[in-house]
From TrEMBL:
Residues 69-255 form the ABC transmembrane type-1 domain. It comes from Saccharothrix algeriensis. This is ABC transporter permease. Keywords: Cell membrane, Membrane, Transmembrane, Transmembrane helix, Transport. Its main location: membrane. It comes from the Bacteria. Belongs to the binding-protein-dependent transport system permease family. The chain crosses the membrane at residues 73-95, 186-214, 234-257. It is a multi-pass membrane protein. One of its GO terms (biological process) is transmembrane transport. PANTHER family: OLIGOPEPTIDE TRANSPORT SYSTEM PERMEASE PROTEIN APPC, PEPTIDE ABC TRANSPORTER PERMEASE PROTEIN. It is found in: Cell membrane. One of its GO terms (cellular component) is plasma membrane.
Amino acid sequence: MSALRRGRGLVGLVLVALVALAGLVGPLLVPWDPYRQIEGANLLGPSFAHPLGTDDLNRDVLARLLAGIRVDLLISFTAVPVGALLGCAVGALATVDNTLDVAVQRLFDVLLAFPQLILAVGLAAVIGPGTWSVAIVVVAVEVPVFGRLLRTAVLRVREAQFVTAAEVVGAGRAHVLRTHVLPNSLAPVVVQLALSMSVAVFIEGAMSVLGIGVSPPHPSLGAVLTTSLRYLDLNPLSALGPLAVTAALVLGFQLLAQAANAARG
């Protein structure tokens, strides 16, 4: 926790907290409903009433941007931990048996062989676009990442002297894994969690650009940006808003990851 009180960790925490706060208090910041079509407000430029203007369906861009923040944070803070838990569970179990380990590594090879966007397109074709599709893609992407990360850490810690000492005094394999190995193997997982949060934001934006992300009329950072890019010549600020928020969120997670990695020594 000390890494979050200074330097890159503090800056990253402030950036993520500011974006999250904006998303949470969004309804208090703007009077417009993100789904409401405002009469006579088609593709308006920035004004006091609409700081980022309106889109092609007469909806306030700022209201949709603030609502989109909540969608992206929901995906990041649910799909990434689920992927991490599944990946770590599979990775840890694979270290118990050599045959199981080989089978799991080949499965991870298959998942990692597909580029993220190709995997996203394939899954979206099966289950359809939507928020849950984005979340499932994020989980599928993160499972092999966390699985291999924890497996490597477990194999390294398992050779430590304190683990050997526990085995010598008669501790069972499951007890050693649960009590001694896993608690000392989680440091890289914490770093990867922050990195994967930024990857989740990227995946959501890329899927929205391809038309297989969050389904209309629901907003997300990627969906708001995609709509704004179509009318960039009329209102550049409508695209700069979601770009700035996305950049701040990704940079914040990246700085948190760097701070956590530096704290590991």
